[in-house]
Amino acid sequence: MAKTLRTSGDYTVKAGAGSSGSNTIRLDASTVRIPGNLTVDGTQTTINSTTLTLEDQFMEVNRNNSTAGSEDSGIFFNQGSSDNQILYYDADQSEFVIGATTHAATVSEITNITPGQLKIATTPAQSDHAASKSYVDAQVSGVAGFSLKVAGDDSTQITVASANTLQFSGTNGITTAGTEPDTITISLGRNLDNIDTISTDRSNQDLTLTSNGTGAVVIDDVLSFSGMASDPTATAQTKVYNKTAGGGGTGLYFRNSNIGSGAVGELISKSKATALAIALG
User: Fold this and answer.
1) Is residue 176 part of a domain?
2) Scanning 10, 18, 259, 271, which has the fewest C-beta atoms within 10 Å of its C-beta?
3) Is 77 found in the same domain as 110?
4) Most distant CA pair in the chain: distance in Å?
5) Does some domain include residue 194?
6) What's the pLDDT score for residue 177?
7) Within this chain, do residues 104 and 150 fall inside the same structural domain, yes or no?
8) Edge-first strand listing for the sheet containing 252-255
9) Is the pTM of this model over 0.90?
10) Per-residue pLDDT at 22
């Protein structure tokens, strides 16, 4: 027979000393239904059911926190004798973290965390989706070897293995061609501007400037020669250099093994040539 207990005011059921005591009130029924709101003011709520179903669209944790970005909060996953797994918001770093921790769920701040693995879909469906390792590997590796594109001015050293391609792309007319083993040729489709120094990276290595076809290497400004401490070795190529002026009065010397048996010669200035012509009659 159904019974209704009605009171016109608050109604308290108290066992022993109440919340400060040790007694228990047990409701023994197939279903206990509370039509109104349920507020639990104790420090711990334990639910021993095997299935928990919530009708709410959102679940709030850390409810009484009133200071912005001040407390860690999240969900613990009990793993028995193993370390707990946790998904939480790290307030100090302003980021979400997933991993293993030796902390219990009673902790107020996570200070021990071993980041864990997160499994996601192999291929992202949108540009702002996280990508899996297999997807990134496929995009980087390609079918016929590794293809790496570097855009802009980047001085980072990159190791290129066999059958791999390194491509520089941009708006400065740069093209590349790769040959084995590990050779990359970079061609410039435009003038070089704002270049202060061109040097070789090996000791005693020649620096060669070569024009295309029948073109010439044109120096459209003052060509300055630094003083040489000694004369260069004579070769079949004419070498022009500067040292202290001698009888020619220019200080500009040349040397070629096919000219005068490789003897050093000095270019003669106009005034010296005129004086010599007068002297010789």
Assistant:
1) yes
2) 10
3) yes
4) 151
5) no
6) 63
7) no
8) 239-242, 252-255, 265-266
9) no
10) 92
User: What pLDDT score does 14 carry?
Assistant: 92
Taking residue 264's Cβ as centre, other Cβ atoms within 10 Å add up to 16
**Angle at CA 148, nearest 5°, toward 146 and 152?**
170
> Could you list the residue range(s) of the whole structural domain that residue 103 is in?
71-119
Asked whether residue 108 falls in the same domain as residue 155, the answer is: no
Q: Which residue in this structure is represented by tokens 């990276």? A: 201
Question: Rounded to whole angstroms, how far apart are CA atoms 135 and 122?
Answer: 6
Please classify residue 138 by burial: count the beta carbons closer than 10 Å to its beta carbon, then call 0-12 exposed, 13-18 middle and 19+ buried.
middle
Whole-number pLDDT of residue 86 = 97
Do 158 and 107 fall into the same domain? no
Q: Which amino acid is at 129?
A: H
Domain boundary, last residue among 84, 119, 154: 119
Report the run of H or E that residue 242 belongs to, with start and end: strand 239-242
- Inside any domain, residue 228: yes
> Which residue ranges in the chain fall short of pLDDT 50?
143, 170
Structure tokens at 23: 């007694």
pLDDT in the model for residue 273: 87
Which of 59, 87, 119 marks a domain boundary?
119
275 and 226 share one domain: yes
Q: Which residues contact 89 (CB under 8 A, 6 or more apart)?
A: 72, 73, 74, 95, 96, 97
Burial of 19 (0-12, 13-18, 19+ CB in 10 A): exposed
Within a domain: residue 98? yes
Say how many Å lie between the first and final Cα of the chain, rounded. 151
Give the model's pLDDT for residue 147: 55
Query: Does the CA dihedral 85-89-93-94 come out positive or negative?
Result: positive
Cα Rg of the chain, angstroms? 42
